Amino acid sequence: MRSRREFLLQSGLFTTATILLPTFVLANASEEQHYGVQLYSFRDEMAKDARGTLEKIAAIGLKKIESARSSKGHYYGLSPKEMRDACDALGMKLTSGHVALDDNFDSTIEEAVASGQEYLICSSMPSKGQTVANYQKVAEAFNKAGEACKKMGIKFGYHNHAYEFEADNGEVLYDVMMNNTEAELVHMELDLGWVIVGGKDPLDYFKKYPGRFPLWHLKDMNMTKKESTEFGKGSLDIPSMMASQEASGVKHIFIEQEEYASTPLESMKHNMSYLGKL
Predict the structure, then answer these.
(1) If exposure means fewest CB atoms within 10 Å of the residue's CB, which of 71, 143, 154, 211 is most exposed?
(2) Nearest CA-CA partner of 105 in 93, 117, 121
(3) Could you give the CA distance from residue 249 to residue 278 in angstroms, rounded to a whole number?
(4) Which long-range contacts (C-beta less than 8 Å, at least 24 apart) are formed by 131-139?
(5) What is the per-residue pLDDT for 32?
(6) Phi-psi region of 148 (alpha: psi -120 to 50; beta: other; left: phi over 0)
(7) Of all residues in the chain, what percent carry a pLDDT higher than 90?
(8) Nearest to 35 by CA among 78, 95, 80
């Protein structure tokens, strides 16, 4: 890929662009994508020392937080307000949280309101059955959950794994879910790594359902082991993904890594460095 300097030289605009560069940078600063992290990446560390782990996450430049259910609740032993305040104090935003769509969902919504977060994301299928009929049933439940969240000022969404891309009677089950959910009620969080493990290309979904994916899990995958790895070491075409943000409608990119070459923190430092060089 040509650098910006090479492009400007070849187009005869280098001198003018150099003069205007500070203005260009300032004009586009507000469009910069601030990366977040799914805290499942730091699951053991968060369970041991939530506040201390958040400090380390903030120190490497991550700006958004997505929580995950743990043995200590949705906020690792902290109250929703304590979690919000801890993030705010570190210059981060508690943006989203992975939860279950279960009998306690009303209480989960109330917690999310108290935390100030924008999204509640169902992290796995609420009922089993790899059939079109079950996915239609789930889509109806998602629409209802979306309505309940909307009334409380929260956005509801769903996070995929690989199994949703299996087919039943010739229909891809993820597509069944997409076709039967209301876009204004169910906000999809596309896990790019699990899409490719499921044998599909995220870019195809950006084209088929433009603007339907306001959240991503940016995750590189070792396709031999079918597990996550550091950016640039796996099979996800990350540069192409990053060039397709507008088509997908993404607003929040959360890095998630579940397996590590050394430690979660070192892996996340590598990932942030990789993104910084794109």
Answers:
(1) 71
(2) 121
(3) 20
(4) 131/168, 131/173, 132/168, 132/169, 132/171, 132/173, 132/176, 135/168, 135/173, 135/176, 135/177, 135/180, 136/176, 136/180, 138/177, 139/176, 139/177, 139/180, 139/181, 139/186
(5) 64
(6) alpha
(7) 88
(8) 95
The string of pLDDT tens digits covering residues 92-139 is 999 999 999 999 999 999 999 999 999 999 999 999 999 999 999 999
Pairing assessment for the beta strands 119-122 and 93-99 based on DSSP bridges: parallel
Q: For residue 58, what are its two tokens? A: 């903030």
34-277: CATH, from 3.40.50.880, 3.20.20.150, 3.30.300.30, 3.40.190.290: 3.20.20.150
The percentage of residues in the chain with a pLDDT greater than 70, rounded to a whole number, is 88
